[in-house]
Write a sequence for this structure.
């Protein structure tokens, strides 16, 4: 999918792909963009409209293992778990930062020792597991769109026009686009 998408833009721009940044925070962490650099041009796609990101958001491009993840609910054997703390402002407005907030879960003594080494370099606020789960549903739940994912891949693999299949599965109605753009304006006014 990724290669097909990049090839599409290379042909459209008559340019050569260089790099991609899935989370370019030029505007803000909350309103990040997909940034694709070519030799002579740079393309930005808002995360709410980028086909590559929407395929992920809608669970079409996830690996099969994501639908049966053994590491949900803290079952990872890691010493520390890290992630974006999306919607942190719904839990504690004071710790929101437009450049991003990370969630850190310490899971072992070794993890605590490692984490303690960086305490002087970070701003730390403790939140309850209940608050974390309230705004980060994916920590506790499985992706549930396996059938939609299989339909997408069946169409994608068997199509001679794969870009149109990507567009089909990531296209919004006029009403949906309007609501997203309105919400983006609200976020911008709130300086998110």
């Amino acid at each position: 999918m990724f290669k097909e998408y990049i090839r599409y833009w290379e042909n459209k721009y008559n340019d050569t792909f260089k790099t991609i940044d899935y989370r370019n925070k030029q505007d803000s962490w909350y309103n990040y963009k997909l940034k694709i650099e070519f030799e002579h041009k740079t393309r930005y796609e808002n995360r709410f409209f980028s086909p590559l990101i929407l395929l992920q958001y809608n669970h079409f491009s996830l690996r099969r293992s994501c639908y049966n993840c053994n590491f949900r609910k803290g079952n990872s054997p890691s010493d520390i778990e890290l992630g974006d703390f999306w919607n942190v402002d719904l839990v504690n407005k004071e710790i929101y930062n437009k450049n991003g907030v990370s969630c850190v879960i310490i899971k072992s003594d070794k993890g605590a020792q490692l984490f303690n080494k960086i305490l002087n370099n970070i701003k730390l606020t403790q939140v309850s597991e209940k608050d974390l789960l309230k705004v980060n549903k994916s920590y506790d739940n499985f992706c549930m769109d396996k059938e939609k994912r299989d339909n997408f891949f069946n169409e994608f693999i068997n199509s001679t026009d794969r870009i149109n299949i990507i567009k089909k599965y990531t296209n919004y109605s006029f009403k949906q686009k309007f609501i997203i753009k309105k919400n983006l304006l609200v976020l911008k006014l709130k300086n998110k």
